[in-house]
Amino acid sequence: MIKGEPLNQLLVEIEKQLEFVLQIKMEHSIMFLKAVKTWLQCLVHPHAKFTMYEERENLDESSIIVYDTVQLKIAFLLKEDELAYQLAVRLEKLVKKSLLLIISPEFYFYHSLLLIRRCQQKDRKNMKIVKKQLKRALNQFKKWSEHCPDNFRHKQQLLLAEWDRLQKKETEAMKWYDEAIHSAKTSSDIQIEALANELAGDFYAKKGMHRIAQTYIREAYRCYRLWGAHNKAEQLQHDYPEFTLIEEINQTKNDHKSMITWEGIKRTNGEERSLSAIIQAAASLSEDMNLEQLLGKLLMLIARFKGAEKVCFIRPNGKENDFSIEKAISAQSETYGKNQNVGEYVPILVIQYVYRIKGTIKLQDAVNDFTFSKDHYIQKNKVKSVLCFPVIQQKTVKGIFYLENNQLKNAFASENTEVLKTIASQAVYVLELQHSFGKETKIAVGKKAETTNNELVDPLTERELEVLNLVSIGLTNKEIVENLGLAVGTVKVHLNNIFSKLQVNRRTKAVAQAKELKLL
Fold first, then answer.
1. Fold observed for domain 308-437
2. Is the pLDDT of residue 254 over 50?
3. Measured in whole angstroms, how far is the alpha carbon of residue 390 from the centre of its chain?
4. CA 305, 259, 261, 11: dihedral to nearest 10 degrees?
5. Is 449-516 in CATH node 3.30.930.10?
6. What does the pLDDT read at residue 327?
């Protein structure tokens, strides 16, 4: 899910987010964004020194995981191995019991690479333990790769290359390095492309194959510079003084200026902000807030992520022509729907079409689009760019999200909607929680409440509590299976037991009852 967006662009985006959160005084988000800015600058500025961020007072476990995983990644890249190992040790237990799934693959990836590096350098006495940990990580990445190859296949292949290198299976390692580099290019992940080239170069250099090693190290140097990690590129030059790391500086600058990536894919300003969105989502979700505030924040995040002037969350009422606006935000105002005439706020023809086809619509210039130009709202407001998509659960449209930008044509040209739909799915889940136990209910992700399990006649088992926690953050049965490593049938048995013990018949009611009993 976290890819190598250009670091300079990312720092600019973080500055914008800082301005926003400073205005609304979100203390956790302010602290986190400032920390991320400092860490990224360690990659960007030559000779910058990475130091661990230790201010952890008032942070819940989820926030600590996000902080330390980002630090682990940067410490590993800059070869601050002792700091990286300290971070990995204190993270490991937290991640195993964590519900914060977005960031956990990053931990397992860099933790695995760090363990392999330590074994290669000095820690071979713990080889058996390390191999056991690595096998678990490889099995997990295999599942993730099958589920979402664009996000995880190149990382799985790089882990396999390093694993085979550790096992002295050199021919297999060579194959996996090249496949990881190719897959990283295909997935437009220049940071992993750089890292894969660096590790492959190190592999060949250690074998004494210096001409081949120089080719990989040069490519790693080029990719790190293109990514914006100039400090890391300088480190490569220092680590391999025998290699001439030639780079066409002017071409690299032009690449940054036009945002044309290594695969020729244009990245205009404001697009491809998946890491930024995840950072802000994680920071927002670690705040203690009521569900109504959380729903508003998620819509604001969608607006900022896609550069929308207006975002509407529309709920179908079971019929093609019956919709209500649950919440809407725009540059001018914030609207609460329920009894409004939907057609006055959004193009009803677009909403009906998305509901009918259960698919996404992008309009570059809606007012001149032959299919929808006759819509009353589009004509009245001279609408330009539109993005509209459904959130589908169990083959049913649970919500429709409408985004609008009237300043630019084709404002939503980016093909990357995966992170957007993830945030939208969370908004749908928050709405379900609202309907179950009210808008003012407070939610605190990652905090452990005092358990009164003994109040139940038949207390929940430890495994049932784990399943219940995953249900409470909106995970499907399939996602629970992947997270806990259980069979689908076993998860269903646990859910039936939970429903029976809590005397409920639905997931949302189970969550509400568990909160009332302080099980969550």
1. Beta-Lactamase (3.30.450)
2. no
3. 20
4. -50
5. no
6. 87
